[in-house]
Amino acid sequence: xxxxxxxxxxxxxxxxxxxxxxxxxxxxxxxxxxxxxxxxxxxxxxxxxxxxxxxxxxxxxxxxxxxxxxxxxxxxxxxxxxxxxxxxxxxxxxxxxxxxxxxxxxxxxxxxxxxxxxxxxxxxxxxxxxxxxxxxxxxxxxxxxxxxxxxxxxxxxxxxxxxxxxxxxxxxxxxxxxxxxxxxxxxxxxxxxxx
Length: 195
Prior knowledge:
- With 195 residues, the chain is an alpha+beta fold.
- The chain folds into 2 domains: 2-65, no CATH class; 77-194, Sandwich (Immunoglobulin-like).
- Helix content is 17%, strand content 32%.
- The protein contains 2 helices and 14 strands, in the order αββββαββββββββββ.
- It has helices at 2-9, 40-65, and strands at residues 14-16, 21-23, 26-28, 33-35, 77-80, 103-105, 111-112, 116-118, 125-132, 138-141, 149-151, 154-155, 163-174, 185-194.
- Helix 1 (2-9) crosses helix 2 (40-65).
- The radius of gyration is 32 Å and the shape is elongated.
- It starts with a helix and ends with a strand.
């Protein structure tokens, strides 16, 4: 390992080759010998370079393949602001919205099960509206949901026929104070698959 790092870090390494030696009528080729000379500062520089490369690899690995504990914005989520004087930041200290995959619901049924979650630790109440994207028809509107609570069953305004329906889950948020100040909200695209 030392020799590999030394060769990589010191491009001015020295080569010595022994000449071919003649022994009677046969030739014996001597082994090629390589030697590398590094002083203390070059060795420290090489070690630091190697550590930097390792740290960079770890950083890139975590950045691109790391934990997915928070939802990613894959284009199915759009953030919109509350009142003009409110911050609409979505950093990890603010409101967390969860993504919603496709949902299979029974044809003609008003009673459906689509989990609508206000994640524990959010600083606001959530209100959910399930809206058909093509017609802007509101199928369901929830009451205000506290952090850590989930609405698991809904009664839609009408049953849907067989087919696929692009939908938007609109999320409105308000603060806990008595004024219920609007905060950051979002529109989450989903697909209702009715069978």
